[in-house]
Design a protein that fits this description.
Blueprint (H helix, E strand, L loop, with lengths): L1 E2 L2 H12 L7 E5 L6 H12 L13 E5 L5 E6 L8 H10 L4 E6 L13 E8 L2 E11 L2 H5 L6
Parallel strand pairs: 2-5, 2-6, 4-5
Antiparallel strand pairs: 1-7, 3-4, 6-7
Bound molecules: adenosine-5'-triphosphate and magnesium ion.
Length: 151
């Protein structure tokens, strides 16, 4: 799927948000500046998060309460060579059915991730600074529901 603008990316995140019930895991894949955090901002908008979603680049994780029982937990493991204690924290977050867990740069925690997760790959489009190519893969029942109608 091709998204033409930043606004389209936010709208895409908002659309996915409408399908969330809690307990879902979203793995965001893509280069630096692809739009993983921007997508998460759209997700947060759709979930009714108050205030600004900031990249967890330095804090590794950030949590947001939403307008429902869902809690948005956003990770960025870019700076982590070894998951260590963060893998334990992630594991706990994954086991709370109220949490929607979003992960950027998941390589170091790959073994902790459940198979039932929605992997969203975002890539830049040559010659168009605001366009992004997006593809999705669902690994189980809960993540397949996030794909919507055609799933
Ligand atoms: N269609 C688009 N979708 C997403 N971001 C876009 C789009 N067009 C332009 N941008 C810009 O691209 C940048 C994406 O940055 P963002 O922080 O979301 O990337 P990221 O994938 O999270 O990077 P990092 O790996 O560093 O965390 C932002 O500056 C955003 O404004
Ligand atoms: Mg980011």
């Amino acid at each position: 799927m091709k998204l033409d603008s930043l606004e389209d990316m936010l709208a895409f995140g908002q659309k996915i948000a409408t399908r969330l019930q809690g307990g879902e895991v979203l793995e965001l894949v893509g280069d630096v500046g692809a739009g993983k955090t921007t997508f998460t901002k759209g997700l947060a908008l759709g979930l009714g998060v108050q205030g600004t979603v900031q990249s967890p680049t330095f804090t590794i994780s950030r949590e947001y309460e939403t307008s429902s029982l869902i809690r948005l937990v956003h990770y960025d493991f870019y700076r982590l060579q070894e998951a260590g204690i963060m893998a334990d924290e992630l594991f706990e977050a994954l086991n709370d059915p109220h949490n929607v867990v979003v992960i950027e740069w998941s390589d170091s925690v790959a073994e902790v991730l459940p198979e039932d997760r929605l992997t969203i790959a975002i890539s830049l489009v040559a010659g168009d600074e605001t366009a992004r190519e997006v593809s999705m893969h669902a690994g189980g029942v809960a993540s397949t529901r996030l794909l919507g109608e055609k799933a």
